[in-house]
Amino acid sequence: MIILANGGIPTMPPIPGIGNRKVIGSEELHRRLKSYMRFFGPKAIARLTKIWMPVGKRVVIIGGALQGCQLAEFLVKRGRKVTIVDTAGRLGEGLISDDPERLFRWFGTKGVVMLPEVRYEEITDKGLVITAGDGKKQTLEADTIIVALPLLPDESLVKSLKGKAPEVYQIGDAANPAYMPDAIADGCRIARAI
Fold it and tell me: Which among 30, 72, 120, 150 is least surrounded, fewest beta carbons within 10 Å?
């Protein structure tokens, strides 16, 4: 029997200019920060990121669900000017019940711009060009654009193992990208079934 929790696949939206040097995907950001984790512990990293980070001062985050909101909070605490954009009509999907209200109030005090219901037009050397919900086109100037979208399921490993073990179960983001409570429930469900 095999239980797989191999994670999901990061996504990059099909926006003209997505290959611009100022765009960082979540996987790349993780890779950059991970390289520093080899030399410094979490406390040292927390202090160091208040002084220097591999992102500019003006950051646009593509993705307003849990991932984007948590990243925005992290960046604001490190002195970055943050704008969160999403095609969804509501930001904060996946945040625990009263978290969005508290977090969005805090964002307001810190000058975070939150733009739901946008259409991504293109990425230029100036930043991200969007069409807002009201139909107005604008350029969100940015030094760095970070893609923080939910993961997609990754079925490649489970497919390659079919027939090689009597039972193969896939849990967590690999099967159904979700949030921590869902992943824990997935693991419990499979454990009870075994």
Answer: 30
